[in-house]
Amino acid sequence: MNRGLVILALIATVACNKKAADPQTESNVMLEEPVIKVVDSAAAGKHAGLALIEGGDCLSCHKVDTKLVGPSYQEVADKYNEADIDQLATKIIDGGKGVWGEIPMTPHAGMSRENAKKMVEYILTLKK
Ligand code: HEC
Q1: Would you state the pLDDT for residue 39?
Q2: Banded pLDDT at 128 (limits 50, 70, 90)
Q3: Is pLDDT of 100 > 70?
Q4: Cα-to-centroid distance, 7 and ligand 1 (Å)
Q5: Which residues line ligand 1 (CB under 6 A)?
Q6: HSE on the CB side for 2, CA within 13 Å?
Q7: Is 117 a residue whose pLDDT tops 70?
Q8: CA 77 – ligand 1 centroid, Å
Q9: Taking all residues of the chain, what is their mean pLDDT, rounded to a whole number?
Q10: CB under 8 Å to 57, separation ≥6 — which residues?
Q11: Cα of 32 to ligand 1 centre, how many Å?
């Protein structure tokens, strides 16, 4: 009886080790866990535009819901719509003033139009 248990335990251990060494094994929870964490920290489903905004200098002058140096992103979202995406992307790249006041937005000359548009698309999702 005891011997049987020991053998069972041995088999279980060997089977476990084999799984751990084989990344193809689907059912190994210990291997899957870190993978899930990576997906989480990349925040699956986060808008690409938000990631770009967080990675840029935008948040030193803009907040989502409060005016800072520049207008809040909610104010911007309320003022514009899809048809303005191109124009706003140009404004981010070239900078400029006069729409919200006399303080200019600094240009972001190195930014691609594609990325600038993604940022605007994200900002427009903040419409109240
Ligand atoms: C140095 C401060 C500053 C930084 C950095 C900054 N902005 Fe601005 N932003 C402003 C100001 C000031 C305005 C208002 C300009 C105006 O009145 O025409 C503005 C306006 C805007 C507008 C509205 C433009 C319009 O014509 O109504 C958008 C969209 C915008 N910013 C997005 C961004 C994004 C995205 C970034 C990061 C890549 C960014 N801003 C970085 C200061 C800044």
Answers
A1: 46
A2: confident
A3: yes
A4: 70
A5: 53, 56-58, 60-62, 69-71, 76, 88, 91-92, 96-101, 103-106, 108, 119-120, 123
A6: 0
A7: yes
A8: 12
A9: 81
A10: 106, 108
A11: 42
